[in-house]
Amino acid sequence: MKKQPAEIPTRAKKSLDDLHQLFPERSLMLVSALREKNKEDKKLPEWRSEQIAKLTITVIQSAMDLEPAYLYGRISALAWATRNLLELSIWIDYCNLSDQHAKRFSDDSLRDLYGLSKAVQQTFEAKSGAKSNDLDRALDSLSKFAQKWGIVALEDDFKRVSDAAKELGRFPEFQAANKLLSKFAHPTA
After folding, report:
1. Is the peptide bond between 187 and the residue preceding it cis, with omega within 30 degrees of 0?
2. 168 has a pLDDT exceeding 60
3. Residue 20 pLDDT class (50, 70, 90 cuts)
């Protein structure tokens, strides 16, 4: 049986109305305008323009998850969406510190993909008792691709969000909020 949304308190309604002012239409228009303007002016490298667009789209997705989670009383979903927005705020501020920071975050997407691929390989090996040759070849191809982008050794050594929060001087607030939200996101909540 699907749970019906509860009556929305005035403050919550105002917050949801504020979200609707920005998400998704205005935010998507902003992404589109950024891409178009950068095609004309080329003030940002293409990878940086795409990084900003992808971060914005991820913010939109997480923000859009807030309303149904709230309306249907799904505390875990609400906590996950809020936690995602917290982490995104750290990564956006981190990337805006410098081009080097933005490039590190961009390179970390390959490190994350490598880590994900290794986890798939480990899962396969745990189930079958042997590694997948196809997955080994894919990992090797990914390593060679990363080398073309200047990442010499592709390892699962991505920058942790807590380390980025420390560099920003936001670690105490991040740590407290992250711990609180993680408690609500876990099954014991």
Report:
1. no
2. yes
3. very high
